[in-house]
Write a structure and sequence with these properties.
seven-stranded mixed sheet; about 35% helix; Aspartate Aminotransferase, domain 2; 17 strands; about 20% strand; four-stranded mixed sheet; about 375 residues; alpha/beta
Length: about 375
């Protein structure tokens, strides 16, 4: 049986991983500056993460949410402490798309309204409503098309104000990434996020902070939205939450009331997933990884801005992007094939860096040396 061919694959077979590195089946070591789409938060196969999962596996791997699972409450307690959202409620699920789907559904339940504001270049997932709120027609099937989503320009406060003026009583929620990842590492302005908060407060709509890629300490704050000094009504999390184990969550403000049957999931919050997520938070806390993300991220951006060929270096913490000119369009593939460094890409010309939050300054220098060695061999454009 053939695999359904939906992924463009790199010519690398990874057989082993540790920290910020992975190894191919031919023994080649690669520096991982992408972390599998920002999933690897504390480093590959961190010993504490491995042991937490192994210990849990010897107790119980799965039971449904029809029984009391104390490890869920343990996770909720530590998550709310480290995130600073101490009065929030936690709903556990399996993926970022599922988290965003439930967040928008919850907003509609709470407000009794149908409209969701999303933004150009957004990516919120591939399930029905999440993909409808994603600005990419290529992955929107006819069955996903809905008039429930209003798309506005990102970081446009005037367009936002005009939309609320015309649709005030219809809007259930505004969903936005703190930093658009797939959209090219585009940072939400602090004033833009504060404007969303203000309009939601005035209209009774909810603010949904999609933190699937930009959350969980990646930017140096637990949530990228925290830089604006506001709190959202709902936060969604996934990717770095389990360091590679499928787990996701929805943080829900206390004024949003639950009722039995409102949300549900079969596998979400299973004991193995909770063990993995607890390990991530414990390592983040014990190894000061949010501070490290800020320190190493600032260093990387400062150094990248000194490389003339790279344009518009931007981001926060270890969520970094930069544009490359047309003559460097193959840079991502060349970094992989010639210098053995994994990076990400966003169309048409953005390199994305989403390494483990444990990336060291020495490893950052390895990346900088790799990119500089490639660029030094590039033909210079004619004046």
């Amino acid at each position: 049986m053939k695999l359904f061919d939906v992924y463009p694959l790199q010519p690398v077979t990874i057989t082993r991983a540790a920290g910020s590195f992975v190894w191919g089946d031919d023994g080649t070591r690669y520096l991982d500056m992408y972390g599998g789409h920002a999933v690897i938060s504390i480093g590959h196969t961190h010993p504490h993460w491995v042991k937490r999962i192994e210990d849990q596996l010897e107790k119980i791997a799965f039971y449904s949410n029809s029984v009391h699972l104390p490890i869920q409450e343990e996770l909720a307690s530590l998550l709310l402490h480290i995130s600073g959202k101490k009065n929030y409620q936690l709903f556990l699920c399996n993926s970022g798309a599922e988290a965003n789907e439930n967040a928008m559904k919850l907003a509609s339940f709470h407000t009794g309204r149908k409209k969701i504001i999303a933004f150009r270049h957004s990516f919120h997932g591939r399930t029905s409503l999440a993909v409808a709120a994603t600005d990419n027609p290529a992955i929107l099937a006819p069955v996903n098309v809905t008039d429930a989503i209003i798309f506005l320009p990102f970081n446009d406060e005037e367009a936002l104000a005009e939309c609320f003026k015309n649709n005030r009583d219809e809007i259930a929620a505004v969903i936005t990434e703190g930093i658009q990842g797939v959209g090219g590492i585009r940072v939400a302005a602090d004033s833009f996020l504060r404007s969303i908060r203000e309009h939601c407060d005035q209209s009774g709509a909810l603010m949904i902070a999609d933190s699937v890629q930009c959350g969980y300490g990646r930017t140096g704050n637990f949530f990228a939205h925290d830089y604006a000094g506001i709190s959202a009504d709902i936060y969604t999390m996934a990717k770095g939450m389990g360091n590679g184990f499928p787990v996701a969550g929805v943080l829900i403000a206390p004024h949003i009331k639950p009722k039995h049957g409102m949300l549900g999931t079969t596998f979400g919050g299973n004991p193995l997933a909770c063990a993995a997520a607890l390990a991530v938070l414990e390592v983040m806390r014990d190894e000061n990884l949010m501070v490290n993300a800020t320190t190493v991220g600032n260093y990387l951006m400062e150094q990248l801005r000194g490389i003339p060929s790279l344009q518009q270096v931007r981001g926060r913490g270890l969520m970094i992007g930069f544009d490359v000119p047309a003559e460097l369009s193959g840079l991502k593939n060349e970094l992989l094939s010639q210098t053995h460094v994994f990076t990400g890409e966003a169309k048409p010309s953005v390199i994305r860096l989403l390494p483990p939050l444990s990336l060291s300054l020495r490893e950052a220098d390895m990346f900088l040396q790799a990119i500089q060695s490639l660029l030094s061999n590039q033909p210079q454009p004619e004046n």
